[in-house]
Design brief:
Helix content of chain B: 55-70%
Distance between the termini of chain B: 62 Å
Number of domains of chain A: 2
Strand content of chain B: under 5%
Number of helices of chain B: 4
Radius of gyration of chain B: 20 Å
Oligomer: heterodimer
Number of helices of chain A: 5
Chain lengths: ~170, ~120
């Protein structure tokens, strides 16, 4: 079981992707999709050097997705407003540092995707030799507000999901 | 496009509203790319295009074809998943490249050192 189905979630996603791409539930495609869903993770395993972290809290993942979606839509309108109506001198774009407690590489990947998908913030990097994230904020008013927001709204739930909530 | 005439009114209203909203957001994103003064601000323009702009257009497409063909057409979801998985990686790479390029070239007018997170190599 473990050998032929190393990551069942990845297999499930691949299977569903195949069916969606072909827009069918025809038995032939079920079979082909099933073969791909089993074959690709086995063949691609050497490309994933890190042991996949089991999801500890799928409910938190769902809440995080909903919250991020609302945040993305809200930020979209904020950024649009600034582009349309903000004067050239009015935008205070800055880099800020955010100390992170999250260590799980998959968690960090998820965090970076969420932050970069949200308009108005771009993840630059984790600063070398530190645990601090360099983040570029499009229109900065209050640095502490950003630190608190990232830590409580994003980092906390992600730690619950991947590290079982230890803080 | 003659099939569009067969679309019921409620669906036509939803599709049109989503297309107008999505198109407007893509336009605003492009305006941002054109109007904002420096690179670190311009990178935030396309971010609204790839999230809400593309999202609205894809949902419009889903509604349009689902209603016309009278079956759920949801394979546009894959496009949004692929966008949300790839666009952040690109933004991160471009951003880091820009920061280190400006630091090495000691360009003081680009905003690379705003916020004192990054410093020019000779000032450390």
């Amino acid at each position: 079981m473990k050998r032929w189905l190393p990551s069942p979630w990845l297999s499930l996603v691949l299977f569903l992707t195949w069916l969606l791409l072909n827009q069918t539930v025809h038995p032939a495609h079920l079979l082909l999709g099933g073969l791909l869903a089993i074959g690709i993770p086995v063949l691609a395993r050497p490309l994933r050097p890190l042991v996949p972290t089991p999801l500890r809290n799928p409910g938190a993942l769902l809440r995080l997705a909903v919250m991020s979606f609302i945040e993305i839509v809200r930020s979209c309108f904020n950024v649009s407003g600034i582009i349309l109506f903000g004067g050239k001198a009015g935008v205070n774009s800055q880099f800020i540092r955010i100390p992170l407690d999250l260590r799980d590489p998959y968690g960090l990947a998820l965090l970076s995707c969420l932050i970069n998908s949200t308009p108005g913030t771009v993840w630059v990097e984790i600063l070398p030799d530190s645990d601090e994230l360099a983040l570029h904020v499009f229109d900065l008013h209050d640095e502490q507000w950003w630190v608190d927001t990232i830590k409580t709204r994003y980092e906390g739930p992600i730690m619950e999901i991947f590290e079982g909530g230890r803080r | 496009m003659s099939a569009a005439a067969d679309l019921p009114v409620w669906a036509a209203v939803i599709v049109a509203a989503l297309l107008v909203l999505g198109g407007a957001i893509v336009l605003i994103g492009a305006l941002g790319l054109m109007r904002l003064p420096n690179f670190y601000q311009r990178i935030h323009g396309p971010a609204i295009t790839v999230t809400l702009g593309a999202g609205c257009l894809l949902v419009a497409s889903m509604v349009y074809f689902s209603v016309l063909q009278e079956r759920p057409v949801i394979h546009e979801l894959i496009i949004s998943v692929f966008i949300l998985m790839t666009a952040p990686v690109v933004a991160m790479l471009i951003m880091r490249a820009a920061v280190y390029r400006d630091l090495r070239a000691r360009r003081h007018d680009t905003g690379a050192v705003s916020g004192n997170v990054y410093r020019f190599p000779d000032e450390e």
